[in-house]
Amino acid sequence: MHNFRNRHTLSLSLTALLVAITAVCAQITIPIFVPITLQVFGVFLAGYLLGAKWGAFSMIIYLMIGFLGLPVFANARGGISIVFSPTFGYLIAFPFAALAIGFISRMKFGEAKKIIISIALGIITIYIFGVIWLLIWSRYIAHKPMTLFAAISVGVFPFVIIDAIKGIAAYYITKAVPKNIYERLK
Fold it and tell me: Do 94 and 63 contact (CB within 8 A), yes or no?
C-alpha cells in the first residue's frame, strides 16, 4: 500500500509539473515568419516523462484549466472562447499526442526507432486534429473555406521541422532525468 501511495503521489506531482511546464511553454514565442510557441515541447515532455496514461491526463488537465479561464494557452489566453480559434484543433490533439508518445516511448525497441516513431506519431496526431479543425473553422466560423492543401500549407508545413526538433529535444532532456523517477510511473 505504501509503495502504491508513493507512486500515485509522484504521478500526481509530475502531472502538475508538466501542466505548469506546458503553460509556461505556451507563453514562449519564437518570432519567425509565423509565431511559434513551445507548447508542443510540453506535450512531448509529458508523453516521454509520464507515459501514455499520465501524459494524456496531464494534457487533459492543461486543457481543462485553460477552458475554465486560466491564461495557460498561447498569448496568455484562456476561456471557452478558444473553441472559436483556428488553433483549437491542435490543442484538442494534445492528450492524444501525449498518449501516443508515451505509449511508443515505453515500447521495447531500438532508441533511434523509438525517437522517430514517437515524434512522427505525436506530430501527425497533432496535425490531423489541427488541420481538420482548421478546415471546419475556415468554413463555418471564418466563412472563408480553405482547401485541404491550403490548410496543410498554413497549419503544417511551417511547423514540421521545428516541431520535430522540439520532440528530439524533449526526448534527450527526458534521458537526462534519472530513470528511477519516471520508470516508477509504469
Answer: yes
3-state secondary structure of 77: strand
Task: Tell me the per-residue pLDDT of 17-34, one tens digit each, with 9 for 90 and over.
Answer: 999 999 999 999 988 777
Task: State residue 77 phi and psi, 5-degree precision.
Answer: -95, 150
CB 118 within 8 A of CB 100: yes
pLDDT of residue 124: 99
Range of the domain at 108: 2-185
Unique residue bearing C-alpha cell 501527425? 124
CA distance 129 to 134: 9
CATH number at residue 82: 1.10.1760.20
Residues paired with residue 35 on neighbouring β-strands, in sequence order:
31
CA angle 114, 7, 99 (to 5 degrees): 35
* Counted domains in the chain: 1
Interatomic CA distance for residues 44 and 105, integer angstroms: 10
Alpha-carbon gap, residue 145 to 125, rounded angstroms: 23
| Calpha distance 105→9 (Å, rounded) | 22
Picking from 58, 59, 44, the residue whose alpha carbon sits closest to that of residue 121 is 44
Q: In this structure, how many other beta carbons lie within 10 angstroms of the beta carbon of residue 164? A: 17
